[in-house]
Amino acid sequence: MFEVLDPGSLMLVEDLGRPGWASVAVSPSGAADLGSFRLANRLVGNHPEAAALETIGGFGVRFTKACYVAVTGAATVLALDGSPRPGNALLSCGTGHVLEAAFPSSGLRSYLAIRGGVAASSVLGSRSHDVLSGLGPPPPARGDLVETARMMAEFPDVEVAPIHPSQPGPFAVLPGPQTGWLVGPLEGSFRVLPDSNRIAIRLSGEPIELRNETEVPPQGLVRGAVQVTADGQLVVFGPDHPTTGGYPVVGVIAGRHLDRLAQLRPGEAVVLRQADS
User: Fold this and answer.
1) Which residues lie across from 47 on neighbouring strands?
2) What spatial distance separates the first Cα and last Cα of the chain, rounded to whole Å?
3) What domains appear along the chain, each with residue ranges and CATH number?
4) What is the mean pLDDT of the chain?
5) Among 48, 67, 112, 139, which residue carries the largest CB count within 10 Å?
């Protein structure tokens, strides 16, 4: 159990979210960077279905019971009672200890897992907080006590994970339902706009030209779907995505690049290239 001293943008997430509700326009939600989320849970020996906390920027918590935790994801500086501690590692925290995370030097989202997982009630089969619908447990506020569950497995054989930094390069784009509407290939350089979030990443660049201006009837989306808006700009949907809003879906970011997509910061450059297959 721990007390939230600085909530930053902490919110509860889990792995697979809430499958089976797309027919009523409720997205699966879940962790934006699934690889980092899963690593945090593995480091503390949690069951894969245990919930953890996702944040943009820093946070601060005080432990009210001794426990094990891990922080993964963006490159942030950690301190336990003022002493530096490594990320991507198993940390032993005693009663009264304070763990603080600074704003990351690179990347965007960090994950805080505690052994046993975070205890919370599910909504429509998920404990993830959905930014778009507001479903799920509310984000913890300053002074809140966060309870732990008992979704534990065996500890891993390592205490520090050897992390290879994400390789820069183009994001591969697979065909979408309306790829045939494009005048040219969906390729080029873009910038991440500040109003991006877990619902979608908005990109700014040369307007995309379409052969067809017909409005698309509402239909389901997947994480990574790329939509062209009325002004020719691109929107790449995240874990809390809606259904289509009348705009065509001209591509889908390849699954192997979705975790890297979740770590993009406003202003960063994004290069899109059509996938080979």
Assistant:
1) none
2) 47
3) 2-146 (no CATH), 171-274 (2.40.100.10)
4) 92
5) 112
Q: What is the pLDDT of residues 66-78, one digit of tens each?
A: 999 999 999 999 9
Question: Which is nearest to 247 in space by CA: 219, 207, 275?
Answer: 219
Give the model's confidence band at 219: pLDDT under 50 very low, under 70 low, under 90 confident, else very high: confident
The whole-model pTM stands at 0.93
Integer Rg of the chain from CA: 19
Tokens of 3: 């007390």
How confident is the model over 251-268, as pLDDT tens digits? 999 999 999 999 999 999
Separation of alpha carbons 244 and 72, rounded Å: 32
DSSP 8-state secondary structure symbol assigned to residue 3: E
Q: What is the structure's pLDDT at 78?
A: 97
- Torsion, Cα of 138, 264, 168, 203 (10° steps): 130
Tokens at 100, concatenated: 């603080």
Tell me which residue of 88, 90, 91 sits closest to 80, measured CA to CA: 91
CA distance 212 to 180: 9
Question: Is residue 277 packed enough to be buried (19+ CB in 10 Å), middle (13-18) or exposed (0-12)?
Answer: exposed
Q: Residue 41 and residue 16: Cα distance in Å, rounded?
A: 13
Residue 262's identity, in one-letter code, is A
